[in-house]
User: Which sequence fits this backbone?
């Protein structure tokens, strides 16, 4: 009853202003329909469709829009997309997770979409042109650090041989071991057979940075992968052997594979360390000192004394198995 009175009162006000309530409803409905047709998502999809007709490859662009843009501004109209809104709802999140390369590429994508909107006279000013991104700092390595990005990447890595039929089995295993053990790329590609301890189910070698003995417990998944290739090249001392059948794979092998999978600007071999570091801490809630030990970082106790490298070995073994199971759960989904 109260709602009916409210509507009646509104109608009276409109009539006093010389406005036909019926026409007002039609115009309001028309305006809402027009806004729905001009949301960011609709214009972006039209832009992508045009590019598809031009046979341009936009798989990465589509993935970035679906993950980092549509959920946050997809239903907003272009007049609502101010510089401040774009900085807060889109770029701030990406920058804070350390994915500067993604932010840079996304800025380029959005710039093209906003230019398309300007041609349609939906906007007069393109705020993307005024977005300023921080410059990458030395030592930063591109890394996926969110589950929504990790799942498709893992499935591509585990199916690498199907997506790229010319790949070596050792390359595919090296990719998987990089994810499962998150050791330094140089240490992984130069792994010798003598570093592999079957009975103890681990690697043992001198860490390149600390120059100390480093023990890497292997999950069941990692152990089985190593077992599957370790005897492939009996005349080589290395586990991950290149095309010559003797020496280890090149320093660009893993990164080249990631580029072929479409992750050139978003994930590097070294970046798997940041991926694991973030997710073990924030999602699996593992102790930071366990993680730091596994990364072969220098770790000290409260007295400033370096921990014994074997002190948390059992804890790290459990952590590595949990990490492998966590990754595997996405492959089984």
Assistant:
């Amino acid at each position: 009853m109260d709602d009916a009175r409210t509507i009646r009162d509104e109608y009276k006000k409109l009539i006093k202003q010389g406005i036909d309530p019926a026409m007002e409803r039609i115009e309001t409905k028309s305006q809402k329909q027009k806004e729905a047709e001009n949301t960011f998502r609709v214009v972006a999809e039209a832009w992508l469709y045009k590019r598809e007709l031009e046979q341009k490859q936009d798989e990465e662009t589509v993935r970035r829009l679906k993950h980092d843009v549509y959920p946050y501004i997809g239903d907003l109209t272009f007049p609502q997309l101010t510089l401040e809104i774009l900085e807060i709802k889109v770029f701030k999140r990406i920058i804070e997770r350390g994915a500067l390369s993604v932010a840079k590429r996304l800025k380029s994508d959005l710039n093209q979409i906003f230019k398309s909107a300007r041609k349609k006279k939906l906007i007069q000013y393109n705020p993307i042109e005024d977005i300023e991104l921080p410059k990458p700092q030395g030592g930063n390595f591109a890394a996926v650090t969110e589950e929504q990005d990790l799942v498709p990447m893992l499935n591509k890595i585990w199916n690498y041989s199907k997506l790229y039929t010319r790949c070596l089995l050792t390359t595919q295993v090296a990719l998987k071991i990089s994810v499962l053990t998150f050791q330094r790329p140089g240490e992984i590609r130069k792994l010798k057979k003598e570093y592999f301890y079957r009975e103890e189910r681990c690697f043992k070698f001198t860490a390149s940075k600390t120059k100390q003995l480093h023990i890497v417990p292997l999950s069941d998944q990692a152990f089985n992968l190593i077992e599957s290739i370790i005897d492939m090249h009996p005349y080589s001392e290395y586990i991950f052997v290149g095309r010559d059948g003797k020496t280890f794979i090149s320093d660009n092998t893993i990164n080249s594979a990631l580029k072929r999978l479409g992750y050139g600007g978003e994930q590097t071999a070294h970046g798997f360390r940041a991926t694991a570091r973030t997710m073990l801490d924030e999602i699996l809630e593992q102790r930071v000192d366990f993680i730091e030990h596994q990364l072969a970082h220098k770790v000290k106790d409260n007295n400033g004394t370096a921990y014994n490298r074997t002190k948390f070995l059992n804890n790290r073994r459990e952590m590595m198995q949990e990490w492998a199971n966590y990754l595997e759960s996405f492959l089984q989904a």
Remarks:
- Residues 305 and 316 are 20 Å apart (CA to CA).
- Strands lie at 196-197, 202-206, 213-217.
- The first strand starts at residue 196 and ends at 197.
